[in-house]
Amino acid sequence: MAMIELNPLRYFISAFETRTFSQAARENGVSQPTVSAAIQRLEDRLGAALFQRSKSGLAPTPLAIRLYHDSLKSVAHLATLEERLQDKPQQVVRVHCAADMLLHKITPGLNSLRRLTANLVFSFTDDPLGCDIAYLTDTCVPDMHDFMLLEEEPFGVALWHLHPFAALPGLCLTDMRDQPLIHRPYCPNADRVDLGLVHTSAVARATNDPQLLDLVAAGLGIAFVPRSHCENRNDIVWLPLLDAKAGTRRVGISHRKSVFAAGLAEKLVNSIGQ
């Protein structure tokens, strides 16, 4: 029996990581029907479904999970074989992730870039001015950078999943004034003093959002955060404000104005999806 071809496996891996055929197509520079047809051929060959399809995206089956883990390293190795044989020098990409961002949102995209280009090396920096690409909000874009929007998301309140308010549909400002607040002094839109929270007692001051979320999950206090911060966490609940406009933030990738950095940023945005 002939071996499974490389391209269908590449499309499958992208679909597994992005959970949509459209994003997998953008990541590989092909059309969505091309990806769908390739996945269908894989399923026919393996004799079982790889994904359960729904309006919310793709849910991998147990077979897909096995195939992903068994093929990931081999596909990455073969996809970059030519570059490695040519002994191309390493290209260092300086990446900045702002303190109010969670890196896990872009790690699949970084992983995709690394698979497609064997000589890329990511060097993370706290200095936004010295980076090639950055993950941040539009209010924090460094000088001489262009910005590519990923999403706009609302702010709300994060609290411990066993907090007395956790089952409520939302909170009012008076509810928050009675609660200890974990401050985010590094965030431009941090604690919404303009909403009347200036008298809220501060129980801690975090230095970045991963640290802040762990403090919230420990029940130390509540925090004012964007909605996506509480996705995929069962120890934290996110609630909207019911009696005030909490505002939104625009999240994206910025990049130096060079062909190299712009190309990386475009590929990263496409792999993450809009």
Largest sheet: 7 strands, mixed
Structural class: alpha/beta
Give, in order, the helices and strands.
HHHEEHHEHEEEHEEHEEEH
Mean pLDDT across all residues, rounded? 85
Cα Rg: 21 Å
State the share of residues found in helices, binned by percent: 25-40%
Compute the number of strand runs.
Answer: 11
* Anisotropy-based shape: globular
Number of helices: 9
N→C terminal distance: 40 Å
Strand % is: 15-25%
- Uncertain stretches of 5 or more adjacent residues: none
In a few lines, what is going on in this structure?
The protein is α/β, with parallel strands linked by helices and 274 residues long. It contains nine helices and eleven strands.
Topology:
Elements: H1 6-18, H2 21-28, H3 32-46, E1 51-54, E2 57-60, H4 62-79, H5 81-85, E3 91-97, H6 107-116, E4 120-124, E5 133-137, E6 145-160, H7 173-177, E7 181-183, E8 202-205, H8 209-217, E9 223-226, E10 236-239, E11 248-256, H9 259-272
Parallel strand pairs: 3-4, 3-5, 7-8
Antiparallel strand pairs: 1-2, 5-11, 6-9, 6-10, 6-11
Helix pairs in contact: 1-2, 1-3, 1-4, 2-3, 2-9, 6-9
Descriptive account of the structure:
It is a single chain. This protein is of the alpha/beta class. The protein has helices spanning 6-18, 21-28, 32-46, 62-79, 81-85, 107-116, 173-177, 209-217, 259-272; strands at residues 51-54, 57-60, 91-97, 120-124, 133-137, 145-160, 181-183, 202-205, 223-226, 236-239, 248-256. Strands 3, 4, 5, 6, 9, 10 and 11 form a seven-stranded mixed beta sheet that branches. It has a two-stranded antiparallel ribbon with strand order 1-2. The protein has a two-stranded parallel ribbon with strand order 7-8. Helix 1 crosses helix 3 (32-46). It is globular.
